[in-house]
Amino acid sequence: xxxxxxxxxxxxxxxxxxxxxxxxxxxxxxxxxxxxxxxxxxxxxxxxxxxxxxxxxxxxxxxxxxxxxxxxxxxxxxxxxxxxxxxxxxxxxxxxxxxxxxxxxxxxxxxxxxxxxxxxxxxxxxxxxxxxxxxxxxxxxxxxxxxxxxxxxxxxxxxxxxxxxxxxxxxxxxxxxxxxxxxxxxxxxxxxxxxxxxxxxxxxxxxxxxxx
Amino acid sequence: xxxxxxxxxxxxxxxxxxxxxxxxxxxxxxxxxxxxxxxxxxxxxxxxxxxxxxxxxxxxxxxxxxxxxxxxxxxxxxxxxxxxxxxxxxxxxxxxxxxxxxxxxxxxxxxxxxxxxxxxxxxxxxxxxxxxxxxxxxxxxxxxxxxxxxxxxxxxxxxxxxxxxxxxxxxxxxxxxxxxxxxxxxxxxxxxxxxxxxxxxxxxxxxxxxxx
DNA sequence: ATATAATGTGACCAACAAGTCACTATTCTT
DNA sequence: AAGAATAGTGACTTGTTGGTCACATTATAT
Lengths: 212, 212
Prior knowledge:
Two copies of one chain form a homodimer.
Chain A: H1 4-8, H2 11-32, H3 35-42, H4 46-52, H5 56-78, H6 86-103, H7 105-115, H8 124-148, H9 157-181, H10 188-207
Helix pairs in contact in A: 2-3, 2-5, 2-7, 3-4, 6-7, 6-9, 6-10, 8-9, 9-10
The structure holds a DNA duplex (30 and 30 nucleotides).
């Protein structure tokens, strides 16, 4: 809950402040992030930050919800559930997230670190909420798959979910690492490479790594 | 490189200091860990810590290598490579790690956080080294599998590795969470449950989640 | 037993950064 | 245009904690 003053700011300034804050938190972590640096990054005085937020923690928490809401909107727009199964979702979802990554590397990286728990107990609640939403969604896809006959029925949904998440999360992490190492500007060649790995991952998801 | 004084300490005191430090770093993170608290935990004065280590960072780094060396020893003892394939390894490795977890929850949790990058750039080098060792090992198992005919040969090892790691890491993370929530004292019932999930994971690894 | 070296200690110091506040600048109201 | 309200500012205060150091204690050497 930012202060009244913050809400009355014009959108541009609000966004400047938040993005500067996210950049600092992302680069330095919560403890090492300096309010002074955030203020400088946003082009305001340190005192102003305290007109907007009670304290550092509140600012951070607001950044977290801001980033997550941004994604919720984006994801809602892009992926109509329809009657996809897990494989379609992994394929199309990965492409979408990849596009988003090119547009908003900072936000994606920040959200990723929230999700993977790098901010520790501070962002725990948000991170749990994020997991819950994703899980719910994926469980529905698994159920869809079972109905459509593309997912084996001898295992319970929870186990299938764990397996699916393991593979997709690792793939996402790999992408992040690759893309980070080239300053979020992958070449067309690298893009093809990832596409290739993605297809193989889906094949592995479906058929496993055992021989036949 | 701790100071000469530290090396001359008797083993018991050394271990008390390191374990107190790991406990504090684990509970609070690097920035919030207080030297005073570590000293208290180890039953020595704050000044003594500075007889042993140049500064907080050196102490932390030493904790990291200490914990990792502990595991290296443990793992070397337990898992002779022989000619296991990835499935055997996952099964027996999981059991071993589970036993270790019961004995040394603190060290396992600490190492896990190093591996997952929760300590950020501070432990980056150690975490990379840890990954490298694991990877090398797993790549050999994959090669074994291909030779023995238990792993499909149409995909390159790197891709298979990514898939394998995704599944196993997620499984480990799940175990950690479960076990943490009961103060590292799982009931026999919970143990069976994990064993069950483990077997299903192996089935999924081998055959995938596709029908047939 | 005495001298010397090594280790232990906790009050203290210095640095740093979160958060405050007295003042200025701007915007809104009538 | 005057006054009131709101927003902006950065020098200053304050709490915290990593690290020091002068002294106390213990171990080692002769």
